[in-house]
Automatic annotation (TrEMBL):
Signal peptide: none annotated. It comes from the Bacteria. It comes from Zhongshania marina. Residues 43-97 form the HTH cro/C1-type domain. Pfam families: HTH_31. The keyword Kinase does not apply. The chain crosses the membrane at residues 6-24. Keywords: Membrane, Transmembrane, Transmembrane helix. This is XRE family transcriptional regulator.
Amino acid sequence: MSFMKQYAVFSVSNFATFYIVSIIETMKPSPYTIHYDNLRAWLKQQRENSGLSLRAASAMMGRHHSVLGKMEQDRRKIELSEFIEYCEVIGADPHEGMDVMINSLKTSKLV
């Protein structure tokens, strides 16, 4: 009975019942979140150092500015291919970005 208290149950038809899962449960933080935060901060800093606005960088990538904004704000996953393309657009070395991630991971294991 406690299951029914946690989720809303809706009957769609005589044949199907579905459950609405709490957004909080589906958006559990990853243990790697802090490392991605470091990478996101590096990406944003590199873009700002290049003198490009978010809109200018997104136009050069052929993407909507909200896609890159969400990447920088931890509202969208950073895909590796997009990361490399983004680095090329803003004139940043993707290897340096990977070093940021690797160093963050190594540092956390030492603590």
